[in-house]
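#struct-pred
JK: can someone run the complex with 1-O-alpha-D-glucopyranosyl-D-fructose? inputs below
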Amino acid sequence: MTEIKRTWWKEAVVYQIYWRSFYDSDGDGCGDLEGLIQKLDHIAGLGVDVIWLNPVYESPDLDNGYDISDYEAVMPKAGTMETLDRLLAEVHRRGMKLIMDLVVNHTSDRHPWFVESRSSRDNPKRDWYIWLDAKAGGPPNNWRSYFAPSAWELDAATDQYYFHSFAVEQPDLNWRNPEVREAVYGMMKRWLDRGIDGFRLDAIALLAKPDGYPDAEKPEDIRYLTNNPGLHDYLREMNERVFSGYDVVTVGEAAYVTPEEGLKFVGEDRGELDMLFHFEICDEMPAWDMLRFKRIQRAWYEGLWGKGSNSQFLNNHDHTRQVTRYGNDGPYRVQSAKLLATMLHTLPGIPYIYQGEEIGMTGVRFPSIEDYDDIAMKNRYAEEIAKGRDPAETLSGLQALSRDNSRTPMQWDDSSEAGFTTGKPWIKVNPNYREINVAKDLADLDSVYAYYQRLIALRKENEVMVYGDFEEWPEWEEDARLYVYTRKLGGVCWLIVLNHSDEATDMALPARLSGRTMRMLLGNESNVGVGETEGYLRLKPHEARIFEVK
Ligand code: TEU
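RT: done, structure tokens with the ligand placed:
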């Protein structure tokens, strides 16, 4: 058995808070930090250990805080630095930790650094960003950005283009410049000295840009923005200069990485980051595909297990709610939400809960583009309409994967606006809030929330869920409905059986189980058909079971 390095964050369950949609304490229609403080017991009641807080820094808020204009101030709609300090104290008082979402690939175009940089070609901060002359009368190359048709924006005042991996209003910092790196490291240390417990590092795979900015063969395939030479030099320096001096956790958001590339970020011998947050599922698997999901899980287990830490999640503030996208948000919504939770919390890796997932909140379909807020979706909609596409078809095509699916307000109860605000919410509440809300779940011992509590408690009591080796049972590797695997640590063996389908399914127990006992530890169906004694399991639609096998 591999020598395991035990750490607090490997044993953690992380709860992600999109604070602007969590709870509004002052009736302005936007969630805030005071509201979050008032609702902390809801989170602590799950038994989670770490809170990931989406960006709260001063920002014009064009990309909901991912366009930072002051790294060391709190945006007024969220609260003040005093509120943030109080939140941190209240989180720690409950035995939890807080990691902050930090965006250092780019700033807002209204950050003073960029205001100075764009003011003149010989401004001392010109080289804090990426400026190039036009080529053939147009942008320096043919690259797209995540949120715009070109990754370059002409600044007429100085007649040069600046680079932006995301929106025009999010210019990329020039990480080649040691002054930029020094400024970022100093800011990071001041946050860590304030007592936060780490960072979720946004778009961290984009820091390095290729020499010469050559044209892309396929501009639409924006992988050229990520994982360029030099990236890991920056991450090693960042760890040496900042993180290595603190007992904190760092999470690298890295798109378009293979397990081999992912290991470079989080290999325990690399001295870079601690935990990977990749998107081979959420970015590249549009709908549920069990066989593809199994292949991805196998590849990442083989690539990282025992060498570096991975995250397990199926939704976040950028991706549609998992029970809608990857489960069943119709007649089997509750069972499906519990099955997906069982899967994420028993697969190898640190499980993340995105706010609302713990009550089985679903995606949404708003009738008009005006109801949507997501800059990525609205920019893409405008691009398509400008090409003459039909508005209704364009909207319909963008709704399923709109980031707003997961950004509708937290559904606290069945009062107006789901108890999220006494004002007009910044984005509409999902109309199903009367059926799906926290109050209803708290009144039901068989609710999704209650199931998450039991699942997390199981993890706290059994380190096999954290450190146990993973192995799929070969009989079901190619089964598109059943997912059957074990986790083993020392003499402990757990068998996890998931029927990810709308049909009841019988699962014959393999001969190697005969003579062994199977004790059910947790399941999402009560009084299930026993079956074990007859050598098979009769699984209901979306049924999940965890057994201890002796
Ligand atoms: O997202 C980065 C991003 O878009 C990609 O890494 C990835 O492909 C994935 O789909 C996003 O989840 C981060 C933030 O999560 C996002 O909300 C911001 O809009 C973006 O960076 C720009 O800061």
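RT: quick notes.
The pocket of 1-O-alpha-D-glucopyranosyl-D-fructose is lined by residues 63, 66, 103, 146, 166, 202-203, 253, 255, 279, 283, 317-318 (CB under 6 Å).
The longest strand covers residues 482-489.
JK: thanks, will look after standup
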